[in-house]
Amino acid sequence: MLTTVNELRDRGIAVVSLTENFDLGTKEGRFMFAVLAAAAEYELELRAERQAEGIAAAKRREATGAMLPGKKTGRPRVIGPAELATLRRLVDDGVSVTEAARTLKVGRSTAYAALVGR
């Protein structure tokens, strides 16, 4: 971010923050910007460290048996194996995907995605 601001300043373009109320054309404004940019970078690195520590702790718990192996991360699936089997059976019986999705109370795009294996 500092590089972008310096490039703009070198081209004679004034950068003024309307929300923080400082002008990067002044030495005070550049100082404030540098402090805020450093604080943001510090917070970003701190968050990355915490995330890495959390992942390592989860792997340790998995290795000690405190957590089920292969625990999936991310959003849980809307359609489980039983619902997918029902969806496939309905579609194989000639029911439209839209009607089958309505029967299972899931979205049509969710039903299509489940059928193609996404």
UniProtKB/TrEMBL annotation:
Record-annotated Resolvase/invertase-type recombinase catalytic domain positions: 1-62
Alphabetized UniProt keyword annotations: DNA recombination, DNA-binding
Keyword Secreted attributed: no
The keyword DNA repair belongs to this UniProt entry's keyword annotation: no
PROSITE patterns linked: RECOMBINASES_3
Transmembrane region(s): none
Gene3D superfamilies in the cross-refs: Homeodomain-like, Resolvase, N-terminal catalytic domain
Molecular function (Gene Ontology), one example: DNA strand exchange activity
Matches recorded under PANTHER family: DNA-INVERTASE FROM LAMBDOID PROPHAGE, SERINE RECOMBINASE PINE-RELATED
Family in the record: Belongs to the site-specific recombinase resolvase family.
Name by which UniProt lists this protein: Helix-turn-helix domain of resolvase
